[in-house]
Design a protein that fits this description.
Layout (H helix, E strand, L loop, with lengths): L2 E7 L7 H11 L4 E7 L5 H10 L4 E4 L4 H7 L2 E2 L1 H6 L4 E4 L5 E4 L2 H12 L8 E5 L3 H11 L5 E6 L2 H10 L7 E4 L11 E4 L22 E4 L8 H8 L4 E3 L2 H16 L6 H10 L3
Parallel strand pairs: 1-2, 1-3, 4-6, 7-8, 7-10, 8-9, 10-11, 11-12
Antiparallel strand pairs: 3-5, 5-6
The protein binds 2'-monophosphoadenosine-5'-diphosphate.
Length: about 280
């Protein structure tokens, strides 16, 4: 039997999720059909529900529908509940929809396992306080860092996000425009959407120490504007989000099939085929 999956997004034509999941399925001899579904804010919930009543097994959800997916799933995993966003939907045997979020797991797996960058007991700085940051905070906290500082253009947004996670961790907050740092970060993560418009979210280069690794959740064929900035100002490592994309897909695939795919070869494939 061929199980049906898809990714919902707007835009979605650029998504690499279909070939990534096909490569995972081949590893286990599974037959899957994985398509791209373009939707709109008005149609998304109806499109999603129809996809499952037509017999689909699961789907991924990308921008701008992760919050709507969070709202319309019947049940949520703890990770989705914390993130207040769903990027993975699974149909339970009783036909209810379970919403999960694999973004943070994907990021942490790529950072720690693939790139061998330690989070535990290290100082972590995150640029941005929007949905992307909310999605990655819980798995980062679970690694027991020495500190987490949120740096955002709109400080009030960072403060309210820090308050949401206060039961798990005491997060420091500062501003991108008038930053006051306590610690030089060991790891600086760009979770703003600034790379999408070729902007750099932080002007102050004094934040980078000789041992600061920089990670951009975004990726492109060429280094992102943030990673160009990081490289020019002495970051010890510059890593983009291709590995995160493959690892979040692997976690979704596990949720749907119970199989844990091998990711190294798929990340290599994405690095070679990113702009194609
Ligand atoms: P996402 O779901 O991608 O996180 P979002 O919730 O709109 O999208 O959040 C975007 C984040 O990128 C915010 O932290 C935003 O800062 P503000 O809260 O001040 O708006 C940040 N951001 C976007 N463009 C930026 C830029 N050019 N410079 C600095 N920060 C930027």
């Amino acid at each position: 039997m061929t199980d049906k999956f898809a990714i919902f997004g707007n835009p979605v034509a650029q998504s690499k999720s279909p070939p990534i999941h096909q490569q995972f399925a081949e590893q286990f001899g599974l037959q899957i059909e994985y398509s791209r579904i373009f939707s709109t804010d008005e149609q998304f919930v109806d499109d999603l529900k129809r996809f499952f009543t037509d017999g689909a097994a699961g789907c991924n959800v990308t921008a701008p529908f992760k919050e709507q997916a969070f709202q319309c799933c019947d049940k949520l995993t703890e990770k989705a509940a914390r993130a207040r966003a769903v990027n993975t939907v699974f149909k339970n045997p009783d036909n209810t929809l379970l919403g999960h979020n694999s973004d943070g797991v994907g990021l942490v797996t790529d950072i720690v396992n693939n790139k061998q960058v330690t989070i535990g007991n290290r100082h972590i700085m995150i640029l941005g306080a929007g949905g992307a940051t909310r999605g990655i905070l819980e798995p980062i906290i679970a690694e027991h860092p020495a500190s987490i500082t949120l740096v955002n253009r709109t400080v009030a947004r960072a403060e309210s996000l820090a308050a949401e996670f206060a039961d798990l961790y005491t997060i420091q907050v500062t501003s991108t425009t008038q930053p006051e740092y306590v610690q030089t970060p060991d790891l600086l993560i760009n979770a703003t959407s600034a790379s999408l418009s070729a902007n750099v979210p932080l002007e102050d280069t004094g934040v980078l120490g000789a041992n600061t690794a920089c990670y951009d959740l975004s990726y492109a064929e060429q280094p992102t504007s943030f990673l160009q900035w990081a490289n020019a100002h002495g970051a010890s490592q510059c890593i983009d989000g291709k590995g995160m994309l493959v690892e979040q897909a692997a976690n979704s695939f596990f949720v749907w099939t119970g199989h844990t795919p091998e990711t190294t070869g798929v990340i290599r494939w994405l690095e070679q085929n990113c702009g194609k």
